[in-house]
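Supplementary Methods. Inverse-folding protocol.

Structures were first reduced to a C-alpha cell string of length 311. This string, shown here, constituted the complete conditioning input.
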C-alpha cells in the first residue's frame, strides 16, 4: 500500500504542479487508482519565477549541467541536445556532443551560433549571459533541486517543456517506486551517525537543506552536520571529533583522496568511523547530480550506512 500511495502522490504532483489546458486524459495509477492528467502544455515556471513557453517542442537544446543532461536523455529527448559542458559524461552518447563550457564559464558566442531554442541552467545563471541569450531569441530555464521531491518536479517540468510529459511521469513513477523499495529495506534498523565530506581543505559538510542531507536521512542515518549553517558549510575539526560520527562518507572525486589518506589526517584517529574502518568513498558523479540517478545515490548511501542490508 505504501508504494501505491507514493506513486499516486507523484502523479498527483504532475497534475497539481504542471499547469495545463484542456482535453484531460486518464493515467492509471497502481492498485487500480486513477487520476486526471492534462495533456501536455509547453509552458512551465522554472525555479526562479521565469515562464518558459513554446508552441511546439524545442528542436535544439543546450544543457549547462550534467544533471539536466541526464534528465533529457532519461525522458527520451537526448537526440535534441546540441551542447553540454565538459563535465557531462553520462550516458555514453553525451561524449559525442559538442562541449560549450564548464562550471567556470561558458562559450556564449558558440552557444548563440548553435541556435538552440532552449538553454537549461543549473541555478539562475549569470545575468549578463542570460540577457544576451534572450536578446538572441533563446529561452532559458533554471533549476536548482535540493530534495528528491524537487528532483521529481524538475523532471516533470523539463518533460513538459520538451514535449515529453508522459515519459517524465513514467520516469518519476519508476524512481518513486525504487525509492520506496530501498527505504523499506532499512525500516526498523538502528540509525547511524554520519558525516558527509564535501571538501577537505577547508573541511566542508553536507548540511541541512541539501539533497545529500536528505539522502542520509532516507538511508537510515543521522547527519552530524544537520544543525550547521547552510547547505554546504565549513565544519570545524574539533566539532567533527566531538560529534564522533559512526560513518564517514565522501566522494571519490580526487585521485589522491582515499580511505587511507582520510584516516591519517590529524585528529581523525579519535573518530569512531576511523577506528571501525567505516570510511566510504562513493561515486562522485552519482552522488553530486540531482537527476535520475539520485535513486542510485540513495542505494549507495544505504550500502555505506547499513552494509548489512542486501540490495
Amino acid at each position: 500500500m505504501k508504494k501505491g500511495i507514493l506513486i499516486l502522490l507523484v502523479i498527483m504532483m504532475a497534475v497539481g504542479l504542471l499547469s495545463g489546458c484542456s482535453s484531460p486524459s486518464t493515467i492509471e495509477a497502481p492498485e487500480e487508482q486513477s487520476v486526471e492528467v492534462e495533456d501536455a502544455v509547453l509552458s512551465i515556471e522554472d525555479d526562479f519565477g521565469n515562464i518558459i513557453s513554446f508552441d511546439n517542442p524545442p528542436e535544439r537544446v543546450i544543457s549547462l549541467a550534467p544533471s539536466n543532461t541526464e534528465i533529457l536523455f532519461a525522458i527520451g529527448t537526448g537526440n535534441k541536445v546540441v551542447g553540454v559542458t565538459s563535465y557531462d559524461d553520462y550516458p555514453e552518447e553525451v561524449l559525442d556532443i559538442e562541449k560549450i563550457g564548464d562550471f567556470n564559464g561558458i562559450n556564449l558566442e558558440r552557444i548563440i551560433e548553435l541556435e538552440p531554442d532552449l538553454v537549461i541552467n543549473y541555478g539562475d545563471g549569470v545575468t549578463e549571459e542570460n540577457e544576451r541569450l534572450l536578446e538572441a531569441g533563446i529561452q532559458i530555464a533554471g533549476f536548482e533541486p535540493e530534495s528528491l521531491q524537487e528532483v521529481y518536479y524538475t523532471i516533470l517540468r523539463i518533460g513538459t517543456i520538451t514535449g515529453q510529459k508522459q515519459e517524465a511521469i513514467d520516469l518519476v513513477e519508476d524512481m518513486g517506486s525504487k525509492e520506496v523499495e530501498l527505504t523499506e529495506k532499512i525500516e526498523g534498523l538502528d540509525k547511524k551517525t554520519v558525516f558527509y565530506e564535501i571538501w577537505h581543505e577547508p573541511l566542508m559538510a553536507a548540511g541541512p537543506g541539501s539533497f545529500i542531507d536528505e539522502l542520509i536521512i532516507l538511508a537510515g542515518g543521522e547527519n552530524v552536520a544537520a544543525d550547521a549553517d547552510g547547505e554546504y558549510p565549513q565544519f570545524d575539526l574539533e566539532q567533527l571529533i566531538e560529534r564522533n560520527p559512526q560513518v564517514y562518507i565522501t566522494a571519490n572525486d580526487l585521485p589522491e583522496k582515499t580511505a587511507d589518506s582520510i584516516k591519517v589526517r590529524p585528529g581523525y584517529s579519535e573518530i569512531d568511523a576511523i577506528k571501525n574502518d567505516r570510511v566510504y568513498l562513493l561515486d562522485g558523479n552519482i552522488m553530486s547530480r540531482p537527476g535520475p540517478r539520485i535513486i542510485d545515490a540513495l542505494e549507495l548511501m544505504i550500502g555505506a550506512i547499513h552494509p548489512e542490508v542486501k540490495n
